[in-house]
Amino acid sequence: MRKADSMKGGFKERGRRKLLLASGVLLLALTLVGLVAVLEKGPISIPVTVGAHPFNRGPFGAHSLYSMLSSNYTVTPVYNWSQALAQLANCSKALIIIVSPEIQYTQGDVEAIRGFRDKCKEIALIIGDETGSSNRILEALNSTIRIQGALSPNPHPIVSIETPWGWRGLLALDKASTLTTKGAPTLIGWDLLAGEAYAYYEDMGSFKAVVLGDGSIFLNQVLQSNASEPYKSFLSSTVTHLCGGECTVYLEASKYQGLEPMKALEYMRDPRKAALIDPSSFLATIIANAIHPSTWLPPLLNYINNLVLSLSRDVSLGGILMIFSVLALTLMLMSKIERVPDAFLEDVREVDWYGYGELSGRILAEGARLGKRDFLTLYSIVDGVLKSLTGASLESEDAVKVLESRGVEGAKAREYWRFMNKYYRRALGKTLWPPIVFWGRVCRESIELSESVLRALGVSLMEVKGLEERTV
Asked: At 225, is the secondary structure helix, strand, or coil?
């Protein structure tokens, strides 16, 4: 009995070990698959804004405005007006606030904002804009007020404000634009010296609007200053009047330009421009990109790849042992990933390489997840172009001489030939090296290299007709 119990316990112990080993291998495989997917997707792009964006804490941002409004109302920053309209339901009263937009409104934006008026029982509008970009919105909502869009002779007017809801005071504007009207709205703000109109109030029953020819009074540099009290008071009084106690505030967040982290870094080299960038937002963006695996893992793998290739040229015993050790470890770690179907990394849209002209820019810009089959298709197209124009195949080393004879620098031609055939053999399974391949990156690099080389032959992947006539 004891022997049987001992054997039974041994079987259980081995079973537990196998289960733990299988779980560990599965976890490692899933981790590596997830890592490859993250690398293929690339880092999240977090632009650094310097304009009146609700989450910009810099001097020209509107984060203070967002914070003030959020303390009393439900505030929704709008990144897409069409999506905001689609999500709108049971709308009793909505207040739209637009401050100094930097990007022009599209027809889709205009139609979506007009849809707010159709869906909501009441709608109100506050615009602080010196550029005139908001005129399309005013026109769409049937307002009679228009922004001139040109700075007045006095760029820093002192404006007297008197509102029908009882607020009175003086506000100093900065680089403001005067307003005009085709109807009879109420003038609530004018230059004390020149008498020019800088603010109007329009009441059309279910639609009310307050328009100022300056967005600076809504920015952080004003609302955070020691002299902010009259500006905060005017803003609070105006929102209370337009909302009538309760409403949902929709704050413009889609019309502000953003700087990519590296461009923002160049931007900050100028001390005057650097003062406009919120350090906390910039630092968060840099950290988010720095810690993402796509930033540091590909260079690390490339370094390992070059190290192995360098050691392979060394015939010493130590070099050979190092090569086999690295290869064995890499293949062991990647064995599970090789069993994962390529479908996990296939792009969600089908790429038409023969109609590639317009689509190529969008692929490179949006980071479409191209796969191994797309690389094989591109290789076939380039091979067909070379055969039709020169008689040489891309698989043959003669292609290098042909490209050199057409003006491609020798080293560049050979490097291109090696690159294309290296991944062509890998895609066909004729070789297992390199063991780790990010096909999206390979496809994008091969697109750029092929475009550069083929131009020497008088053709281009960007020129659809010429390519189709030679390859069909």
From this structure: coil
CA–CA separation, 277 vs 264, rounded Å? 8
pLDDT tens, residue by residue, 55-111: 888 888 899 999 999 999 999 999 999 999 999 888 899 999 999 999 999 999 999
How distant, in Å, are the alpha carbons of 33, 41, 371, 372 from that of 341? 11, 17, 11, 11
Q: What is the Cα–Cα distance from 60 to 217, expressed in whole angstroms?
A: 10
Fill in the amino acid letter for 90.
N
Judge if the upstream peptide bond of residue 434 is cis by omega within 30 degrees of 0: yes
Nearest C-alpha neighbor of 176 from the set 145, 197, 207? 197
- pLDDT value of position 75: 94
CA 146 to chain centre: 33
Summarised one tens digit per residue, pLDDT across range 124-154 is 999 999 999 999 999 999 999 999 987 777 7
pTM summary value? 0.54
Distance between CA atoms of 126 and 201, rounded to whole angstroms?
Answer: 9
SS percent in the chain: helix, strand, coil, step 5: 55, 15, 30
Q: Cα–Cα–Cα angle for 269, 272, 273, nearest 5°?
A: 65
Burial of 437 (0-12, 13-18, 19+ CB in 10 A): middle
* Residue 236 φ then ψ, to 5°: -60, -45
CA 266 and chain centroid, separation: 19
